[in-house]
Amino acid sequence: MKFKLSVFALALLVSGGLLAKVTEEETFSFPLNDGGRFSISNVNGSITITGGSGETVEIVATKKADNQKDLDKIKIEISHSADEIVVETELGSSDKWFSWGGNNSGHVTYEVIVPANTELDSVETVNGGVAISGVSNRVVAESVNG
Q1: What is the Cα–Cα distance from 117 to 86, expressed in whole angstroms?
Q2: Which residues contact 20 (CB under 8 A, 6 or more apart)?
Q3: Cα separation of 109 and 87, whole Å?
Q4: Mean pLDDT, the chain, as a whole number?
Q5: Is residue 109 part of a domain?
Q6: pLDDT tens digits, 10-51
Q7: How far apart are CA 79 and CA 73, in angstroms?
Q8: Quick check: 136 pLDDT over 60?
Q9: Does 4 map to a domain?
Q10: With contact defined as beta carbons under 8 Å apart, do 63 and 32 qualify?
């Protein structure tokens, strides 16, 4: 009985290690002219955008994955000028031996503060929700599974 209990405890420890997540937070800040445009594209994860009183766009991106390799493959590409900011998320492929279609285990959650008069050209995510508040300009948003 003691042996069975030890094997069960070991299996529980190993499976717990497989479920562990790694996390990394990145922050970005860019000035944006009054009425400037902001776009963001995400694959896995939610996007929350709040209109604020400042003249800068503040982005907090929280990346999570099942392992460090998948986390390292998540890339956040940002192009910016005084009139437009574009954020794109790339997850990369997973190296796991079992993964549906080779998909990376990672996801990115975005918390964004924009000037209230920002035009939200495109806010889109595939697997996650979109929440927008306090923005007084045009908004185009889309979520597929969220």
Answers
A1: 16
A2: 66
A3: 13
A4: 86
A5: yes
A6: 444 444 445 559 999 999 999 999 999 999 999 999 999 999
A7: 19
A8: yes
A9: no
A10: no
Pairing mode, if any, of strands 84-90 and 37-44? parallel
- What pLDDT shows up at residue 2? 56
Where are any strands of DSSP class E within 1-45? 22-31, 37-44
The total number of residues shown for the chain amounts to 146
Task: Give the residue from 127, 93, 124 showing the smallest Cα distance to 107.
Answer: 127
For 4-25, b/e burial (b = at least 16 CB within 10 A) is eeeeeeeeeeeeeeeeeebeee
Domain count of the chain? 1
- Grouping H, G, I as helix, E, B as strand and the rest as coil, residue 2 is helix
Is residue 101 over pLDDT 80? no
The pLDDT of residue 141 is above 60: yes
**What residues form DSSP beta bridges with 88?**
41, 77
- Which residues, 6+ apart, have CB-to-CB distance to 13 below 8 Å? none
Residue 14 has what pLDDT?
A: 46
Q: Which two tokens stand for residue 15?
A: 């499976």
Q: Judge whether 3 lies within some domain.
A: no
How far is 61 from 144, CA to CA, in rounded Å? 20
What domain range includes position 70? 21-143
